[in-house]
Amino acid sequence: MLKSTLIKAAEAAGKLIQERINGKFSIEFKDGPNNLVTEVDKASEALIMDIIRKDFPDHYILSEEIGEVKMDSSYKWIIDPIDGTINFANGIPLCCVSIGIEKDGVMIMGAVNNPMLNEFFLTEKSQGAFLNGHRIQVSEQKQVKHSCLVTGFPYTYLDVPNGPLDVFSRLIREGVPVRRLGSAAIDLCWVAAGRFDGFYEHKLNAWDSAAGFLMVQEAGGIVTDFKGHEYSPYQPHIVATNGKIHDELLRWISNTHQ
Ligand code: IPD
Ligand code: CA
Ligand code: CA
Question: Global pTM?
Answer without folding.
Answer: 0.98
